[in-house]
Here is the input.
Amino acid sequence: MAIGSGVLKKLEQFLPPNTSKVFVIGDSIVMSLYGDEIKSHLSIETSLLSFAPGESSKVLDTWFELNQQLEQGAVDRRAVVIGLGGGVSTDLAGFVAATSLRGLDGIFVPTSLLGMVDAAIGGKVGLNSGFGKNRIGCMWWPKAVVVDPDVLLTLPDLETSLGLAEVIKIACVDDPPLLDLLLAQPSFRPSTEVIIRAIKAKLAIVERDPFEKGERAVLNFGHTVGHAMEACSNWSIPHGDAVALGMEIEASILESISGIKWRDKDKFLRVREKAELTRILEHQPVTAWQDLLNYMASDKKSTGSKIRFSLPSCFGGGPGNWTVAVDLEVLETL
Ligand SMILES: NC(=O)c1ccc[n+]([C@@H]2O[C@H](COP(=O)([O-])OP(=O)(O)OC[C@H]3O[C@@H](n4cnc5c(N)ncnc54)[C@H](O)[C@@H]3O)[C@@H](O)[C@H]2O)c1
Ligand SMILES: [Zn+2]
Here is the structure.
């Protein structure tokens, strides 16, 4: 893991010894912005492979197309894949690397805030399918994750705001003083210090629970309700907006069932406002609670007539106790 302004210039030193060639995979926006720069920092044969931007590219067709391009580029076991871009690019590039020739080495160069603090950290790669998001995939760890915060200068404000939802989430579940740091910043654009703190917090949880057997469940804080909101809006509500509201709702649920008051609620609300993550409240009709409950009841995290929520330590979560199942009837009364 390397983080710092200008670290992209040192990309070559993160390549495994004896690398034969490099395939850089990213969407066409990030490739046009950073592809040539990446190439200029590598003395080894490098091909730039791009695909159309957007979630709709994270599918088997694009994976197949990229695999073919690797084959046409005479991929061999010592070839290295660099995943360049936001979470769509790193999820896709990682899955191509994990599956080509039964697994190539790779490096992630995340360029969106969400990519830096979330998607590129934790070893999950994959694709969406007709059965849902991220239904196809595997665990695969890049040899290095190289984060140059300078690339965030070209990231649109909306994407920065959406990425902040995950920074706020990790702060709530594992690093509450990070909320103070976010509040103290002059603008909503995160400083390198904020990015490093968010990455460290996620990395620490992932290292304690690499295969998602327990603690990693807390990373889903805000996501049970958030995911339902996204699905019920037919995916018109962006993930970050949904999670930002989902955290507030899940925290109220956890407060009422645990009797524990959320110490950081006020700070959370102020940080969320600063991150401009209140669009959903201002501009969109929010789905009826009953519709969300119906969706959650049919979702994979629910068991019988109970719905399972992440249980961060501030609500009493701990080893062996990272989630809590709440009766549907109780939720209907809230
Ligand atoms: N693997 C994981 O653990 C994990 C975790 C969270 C999210 N994800 C996945 O991440 C994806 C969302 O990632 P995302 O929000 O980064 O979306 P994205 O990859 O689509 O990027 C958002 C947009 O920003 C553009 N962009 C990225 N970096 C830029 C830059 N520096 N300058 C200008 N434009 C830039 C992209 O071209 C794209 O148009 C989803 O598919 C989600 O499932 C994966
Ligand atoms: Zn998320």
In short: The beta strands are 2-3, 22-27, 46-51, 80-85, 105-110, 124-129, 132-139, 144-147, 306-310, 323-327. The pocket of nicotinamide-adenine-dinucleotide (ligand 1) is lined by residues 27, 29-30, 33, 53-55, 58, 85-89, 91, 111-112, 114-115, 118-119, 122, 124, 133-134, 151-152, 154-155, 159 (CB under 6 Å).
